[in-house]
């Protein structure tokens, strides 16, 4: 479903991504790890068509993601959870979530039902009339998640979906990510720092460092294998192949 070949992204100060090759089959859950600034968000944005590849190829269901963003193709619905929520401040929670549904021409009654249902699912029942500025960071995050998944996407890119959430809510969001994958056979890429989430949801784990994939494998290989990069990332040890700065 997602196919990346020799991807290079360079904003002019040297490559942020430097030869990334990755296959995410339909329905798979790939978790992208890496220290701050390692290019996780840039990778997700490139798959969404928000950042242009400097070199290499990115295909989503065989198509250029930038094109998919401009004219959504039948059969490919993409959702994106922004790292910082990405909500429209001047719109209520309800209107934020309804926004992509309206663009798709959904009937008003169906929009109402879909928004109520997803708000309930993310633990925000009854918050539809509030504005983003009235919500805590964790609540804004959940509204962003609800907006990304309410149109039943079959490709979902989650940028740090549990950042700033308490452990119980993080676990429930990880459960929601699994449900979305199950219900829609959604192919998911998840950038995170949360190792509990990795343990709960990942099929495939990638670790980015220096613009490259320095570890790629199952979560069992990640947590129990002999990769010095994976071991250092899990333990948080300052000594190892990953420079702390
Ligand atoms: N639009 C842009 N223009 C120039 N540089 C950028 C742009 N977007 C990202 N970068 C740079 O690319 C690098 C990777 O950033 P990115 O946001 O992908 O990191 P990240 O792995 O998501 O980090 P974090 O864990 O903090 O979210 C950083 O050095 C950042 O400054
Ligand atoms: Mg990021």
3D architecture notes:
The structure is a single chain. The protein has 245 residues and is α/β, with parallel strands linked by helices. The chain folds into two domains: 1-77 and 177-245, Rossmann fold (3-Layer(aba) Sandwich); 78-151, no CATH class. It has helices at residues 40-48, 65-70, 93-103, 108-121, 137-149, 167-184, 195-201, 219-224, 228-235; strands at 2-10, 15-24, 29-34, 55-60, 78-81, 155-159, 187-191, 204-209, 212-217. Helix 6 (167-184) links the parallel strand 6 (155-159) and strand 7. Helix 3 packs across helix 4. It is globular and about 55 Å long. The two termini are 34 Å apart. The structure holds adenosine-5'-triphosphate and magnesium ion. Adenosine-5'-triphosphate is lined by residues 11, 16, 34, 36-42, 83.
Small ligands present: adenosine-5'-triphosphate, magnesium ion
The number of helical elements comes to: 9
What's the number of domains?
Answer: 2
Query: What's the CATH C level of the largest domain?
Result: Alpha Beta
CATH superfamily (homologous) name of the largest domain: P-loop containing nucleotide triphosphate hydrolases
* Strand/helix succession: EEEHEHEHHHEHEHEEHH
Measured distance between first and last alpha carbons? 34 Å
- Any idea what the CATH architecture of the largest domain is? 3-Layer(aba) Sandwich
CATH topology of the largest domain: Rossmann fold
Helicity level, as a percent range?
25-40%
């Amino acid at each position: 479903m997602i196919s990346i070949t020799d991807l290079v992204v360079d904003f002019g100060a040297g490559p942020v991504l430097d030869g990334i090759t990755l296959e995410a089959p339909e329905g798979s859950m790939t978790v992208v790890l890496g220290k701050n600034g390692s290019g996780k968000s840039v990778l997700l944005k490139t798959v969404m068509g928000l950042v242009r590849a400097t070199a290499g190829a990115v295909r989503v269901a065989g198509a250029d993601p930038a094109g998919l963003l401009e004219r959504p193709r039948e059969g490919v619905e993409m959702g994106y959870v922004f790292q910082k929520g990405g909500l429209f401040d001047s719109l209520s929670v309800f209107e934020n979530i309804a926004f992509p549904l309206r663009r798709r021409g959904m009937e008003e009654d169906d929009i109402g039902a879909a928004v109520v249902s997803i708000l309930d699912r993310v633990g925000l029942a009854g918050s539809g009339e509030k504005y983003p500025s009235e919500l805590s960071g964790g609540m804004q995050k959940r509204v962003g998640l609800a907006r990304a998944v309410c149109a039943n996407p079959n490709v979902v890119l989650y940028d740090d979906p549990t950042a700033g959430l308490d452990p119980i809510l993080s676990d429930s969001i990880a459960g929601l990510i699994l449900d979305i994958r199950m219900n829609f056979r959604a192919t998911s890429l998840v950038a995170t720092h949360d190792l509990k989430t990795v343990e709960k949801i990942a099929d495939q784990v990638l670790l980015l460092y220096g613009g490259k994939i320095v570890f790629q494998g199952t979560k069992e290989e990640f947590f129990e294998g002999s990769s010095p990069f994976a071991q250092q990332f899990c333990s948080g040890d300052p000594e190892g192949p990953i420079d702390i700065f």
